[in-house]
Each structure stands twice: as structure tokens, then as C-alpha cells.
Amino acid sequence: MKLFECQHCGQTLYFENTECERCGSALGFLSDEMQLSALSPDRDVFRPLTDPQREMRYCANATHDACNWLVPADASQPFCTACRLNRTVPDLGNAGNVLLWRRIEMAKHRLVYGLLRLGLPVISKFDDRERGIAFDFLSGPGAPGAAENPVITGHNRGLITLDVAEADDALRARNRRDMAEPYRTLLGHFRHETGHYYWDRLVRDTVWHGSFREMFGDERRDYSEALSTYYANGAPADWQASYISAYATAHAWEDFAETWAHYLHIFATLETAGAFGLTICPQVREGEKTDFRGADPHDFDRLMAAWIPLTVAVNNLNQSMGQDDLYPFVLSPTMMGKLRFVYGLIFGASL
Q: What percent of the chain has pLDDT over 90?
């Protein structure tokens, strides 16, 4: 995630900001420019200081404090690029649901930002039913406006379903413990599930399909049976030699989705480190210095050369605070190959 600057006063801004703390200017995100802009009010519209000729208004979800993205003032639909992906949102007549949904939207907007930064297609099913993507944010039994059956987070032909309860920190921590997961976040869910979507877009029936099977396995293996076997027996004892997580061992599709998510983790975190001008120069290795502003996403080797020292540093910082590792994963040589495959898809595939 980049840092931004108020075009009115020069104050440093962050992605979710809606008002400059120094000058009070209203702020809005322009997804086509990938820029957070200070806004000049003009009647019932705003003019971004990045391009004063444009007339913009806030996405309709700004009324719920769930979005700070902008749409053209003359647009026929009220939602921004990110919010137009929503097919179902929870019952917003319930204050508890609103709080959880805001957390979900924060994570989803960061997801969409990252996809756009990588040049990936972000198309709503409202615009392309067959090739688009949509989100259903559903509540399980007992919640206001809830479904009758338990909500299963997952993906089906571009439709991604997320249990709203995952935005509850305590419940998510319990799920993480019960499922023996070292990492479980809303953003992680989004990145994983979009991995399934982009597999359909970038791998299925393309020149990449054969190489995918060689690296990840044959996705024609019965999926339901594979998951049942995984939940019954767990992962093989030596899974870390070839997989990023235990769950990735369940099926080739899950292996790819987990790898896809980690590539997005790496890209986003290194961009943030670079935006803050971070460098690492361990005192025990005088002269070895890593400057994260040089982590070029178009150069896989430089990207990974920067990622390893960053994870060592942040994991040690967490441990100094008595926290678990921020990145509790092992990148084996096999996993590096799988990450390189995802990198090749993103920067080499015809979208």
C-alpha cells in the first residue's frame, strides 16, 4: 500500500483517510488514477485537486462510513469499482452488522486496490455475468437477516461468499485455534478466494494449464473427496517442503489459491515497506543493507530478495512485543517455484 499526500497542504495521508487532519480537506480515492485526492466542493459535487476539471461524488456506501472511493458525478450507478462487486450485504438495520461490514469493506477495498495495482481485471458480475466477480456477505443462523443454514466461506464461478462473523475478532481467533491455522484474517480470506477466481480466468484451458498441473497437481481429482480426506487425516508430515500451508495440501486448487494469496501478501507488504522508506541493516552483518524501495514487483528475484529479510525483521519485532510471528510461514525452494508461477501469470498472461 502506498502512502499519499494531501494536494492542498502536503500532509501525509493513508488509504482509508476521509479528511486531512492538518487542513480539513475532504479526501476521496480515484481508482482510475490510484490516487487519494483532496477535494474542492463545487455545488453538489467535488473536484479532485489532482484533476480539477473532473466532477466527482462519493460512492453510495460512504453514507455508512464504509467507503471513501469516488465515482463520476454523471455516472448512472451509485457505487464505486470496489462496492459494485457486492451482490449481498448484511442487514444494515442492525448496528452490530454495520460495524462488522465496515471491517469487511476495509479489507475488500485493500484487496481491490492490490488487484488494480497489479493490473488485474476487476469486473463486476453486474457487468459481465460469466466472467465477473461478486461478493455475498452473509450472516449465519440467529443473526439479523441471516441465512437458514450455516454460511460457508468459499468461491463458486466468480461468486465469493464470506461469513460476516469472520469480521468478529474473537470468533475469528477461535476459528483460527480450532482449525490450527497460524494466520487467519479478512484480507487473507479475500486474497485466497480471489485466487480461485483468477485460476478460472488465467489458468483454466490456457497455455498455463499444463504447467499448473506439473507444479500444483491435477485439479481433476474429486474436490469434495479431497477435502474430506484432508479434514479426516490432516496434512502429510513433510508438507512444509512443498506447500505454504497445511490446507494447501488438500487439493491443487487450494494449493494455488494459498500461493496466490501469499504473492499478494508479499507484493502489498513490500510496497508498504518501500512507501515508509524502510531499510534493514542487521548489526551482526555489517554492510548488508536492504532498501525496500528497490523491491520491483516486475522483478521476481529482487522482490523475494527483499521479502526474506523483511519477514525476519518483522517477526523479531513481533516477538519483542510478546506476539506471534507476523509471517509464520516457510518459503521452501518448491514454494519459491510456485510463487514464481503466480508472478508469471500476473505479469505474463494475456488478460
A: 79
